[in-house]
Write a structure and sequence with these properties.
Strand content: under 5%
Structural class: mainly alpha
Distance between the termini: 37 Å
Number of domains: 1
Transmembrane segments: 16-33, 39-59, 66-86, 92-112, 124-149
Number of strands: 2
Largest sheet: 2 strands, antiparallel
Keywords: Membrane, Transmembrane, Transmembrane helix
Radius of gyration: 17 Å
Oligomer: single chain
Number of helices: 7
GO biological process, one term: signal peptide processing
InterPro entries: Prepilin_IV_endopep_pep, Prepilin_peptidase/N-MTase
Shape: globular
Family: Belongs to the peptidase A24 family.
Length: 186
């Protein structure tokens, strides 16, 4: 079996089972929570791209612009088509608000002194803004706050188990993606 060492793993981890299991959980969760939402196929598309982004960020500490753009474009175009097809054009301002608020919050955090937030994270947050906006203000709030809790707890566990040092860079994209998924489940 082909193995790959993830940055914080103590032993080689097979490449495919972890992302495959994560994908099954993400897709099943969205299907259960959003099964009657006509935007479900769009959420599944963005989630699929998000899973790839999470793996890349965990391995390389990078969020490739092409994949972030695919998530953003797929989300905006897909949700736009769904809004028009279902006669709910009121979703457009919420999608725009989700994007604008996400971009403003993450851009502000990224330019703070000693911030470890990268501009890939800023772009990812903006790309997920339309989905959070579609789901409403509560989802947007959770989607913006929860990544910091998830990343903080992860960092504390990794520090406590001596898998990282305080100056070790950690990926933030997976926390953004996981928080968005959790916000869409609520």
């Amino acid at each position: 079996m082909d193995a790959h060492r993830l940055p914080m793993s103590p032993a080689p981890v097979p490449r495919w089972p972890v992302p495959a299991l994560a994908g099954a959980v993400v897709f099943a969760g969205l299907a259960v929570a959003r099964g009657d939402d006509p935007a479900l196929p769009v959420f599944l598309l963005v989630a699929a791209i998000g899973l790839v982004l999470a793996v890349v960020d965990l391995i390389c500490l990078r969020l490739p612009d092409l994949l972030v753009a695919a998530a953003a474009g797929g989300g905006v175009l897909g949700l736009g088509v769904v809004a028009l097809a279902t006669g709910t054009p009121a979703r457009f301002p919420m999608m725009a608000a989700g994007t604008a608020v996400s971009l403003a919050v993450y851009l502000t955090l990224a330019v703070l002194p000693r911030s470890r937030l990268g501009f890939g994270d800023v772009k990812l947050a903006a790309a997920l803004g339309p989905a959070l906006g579609w789901a409403g203000w509560s989802a947007l709030g959770w989607g913006l706050a929860l990544p910091h809790v998830l990343a903080g707890v992860t960092a504390l566990v990794l520090l406590a188990t001596h898998r990282v040092r305080p100056d070790t860079p950690l990926p933030f994209g997976p926390a953004i993606l996981c928080a968005t998924w959790l916000a869409l489940l609520a």
